[in-house]
Amino acid sequence: APAPPPARHLFSDPAEVEALRKNLLTWYDRCKRDLPWRALAATEPDADRRGYAVWVSEIMLQQTQVATVIDYYNRWMQKWPTLQALAQASLEEVNELWAGLGYYSRGKRLQEAARKVVSELAGRMPRTAEELQKLLPGVGRYTAGAIASISYGQATGVVDGNVIRVLCRLRCIGADSSSPAVIDRLWDMANVLVDRSRPGDFNQALMELGATVCVPKAPLCGECPVKQHCQAWRRKLFGNPPKVPDVEDCGAGDCPLCPPATEPWDSSLGVTNFPRKAAKKPPRAMRTATCVLERRGCHGAPEYLIVQRPSSGLLAGLWEFPSLPLAQDLKDKREREELADHLQAWMGRPVAARGLRFIGEVIHIFSHIHQTYAVYSLPLDGDVTLDPALSPSRWVTEDEFHASAVSTAMKKV
């Protein structure tokens, strides 16, 4: 069995825990950002509406910056202020509002879960983290804890990227912070620390600290309300711990939470020695040929053909210009020929490869894919009859294109 972590990695002193809670909440009351979901959570008397408001914000904030989310959140809550309103919306409407926010499956799962609450749970949101995670698709451990603590006052901790960083610095946790063993220990810590009388505020305070003060690079340690509890800050001030450890220090290389011996403390990094993360795999490279088919509309304005992507996988259900994934090493001539064959299937008539005009390349970085779009243009004379057996498709004006559920990558194209 792995060795248990020494006491210095834990929050085992009740007096220290209480002082940390008090200092953090005092700072939060004074310095917290004015965010629309916080205002709703603080003023909405109806528990289900409050839970829904927090839920939407937490889903949108996954992998997305606060500044980006605010506008999307306000428009979403204006259009669908309740679970019942969202449950009645179409996936197309959800995708249109979500367009540009990224990670599009989030919106789809949010709507699916709203429909489940209305149809199977009588419109009543689950009240505990355990029930939220169990009953709502797309709601994981963190999101469930956030909703339960902020909306319903359950004294349960939360662990997201910001909390991981704060806790790893507070307790000099240098093992791989993405490993299951470390994540489990961080959840244990979060559940010990959470303030029992103000769990939602405490969890938001901990996340706020990581987002605004205890940031990944150049943290503002001088402004930190809990620096006196931070072992990484003390180590930065006073150097390495003594060679002879006391009873609470780590043993010789058998601590599951200490940095590996091959990665010693780097004094030039200070508190940013923590957290340690496993090296990320580089995103895989993909190349796609995309063609903007253009015709003259009935009112003389140009129109463009867009087609709908499959209902699962990357960018599921969104609209795009006709596109074809390519092998990385295709020559220019062969790339044109493959795209021409692909377009011929759509149009039901031959397409000459030489008629495709190369416009340029667009690069878009997804979380795990480095995508290059080779963009071509093909103006058409007269009407084109599309095969109804293929994916849904439609002709749109430029304004209609931008109002459709299209990805940021397609807007670049």
UniProtKB/TrEMBL annotation:
Transmembrane segments: none annotated. It is found in: Mitochondrion; Nucleus. Its EC number is 3.2.2.31. Binds 1 [4Fe-4S] cluster. One of its GO terms (molecular function) is 4 iron, 4 sulfur cluster binding. Its cofactor is [4Fe-4S] cluster. One of its GO terms (cellular component) is mitochondrion. Keywords: 4Fe-4S, DNA damage, DNA repair, Glycosidase, Hydrolase, Iron, Iron-sulfur, Metal-binding, Mitochondrion, Nucleus. Its main location: mitochondrion. Residues 60-212 form the HhH-GPD domain. Pfam families: HHH, HhH-GPD, NUDIX_4. One of its GO terms (biological process) is base-excision repair. Adenine glycosylase active on G-A mispairs. Involved in oxidative DNA damage repair. Initiates repair of A*oxoG to C*G by removing the inappropriately paired adenine base from the DNA backbone. Possesses both adenine and 2-OH-A DNA glycosylase activities. Belongs to the Nth/MutY family. This is Adenine DNA glycosylase. The gene is Mutyh.
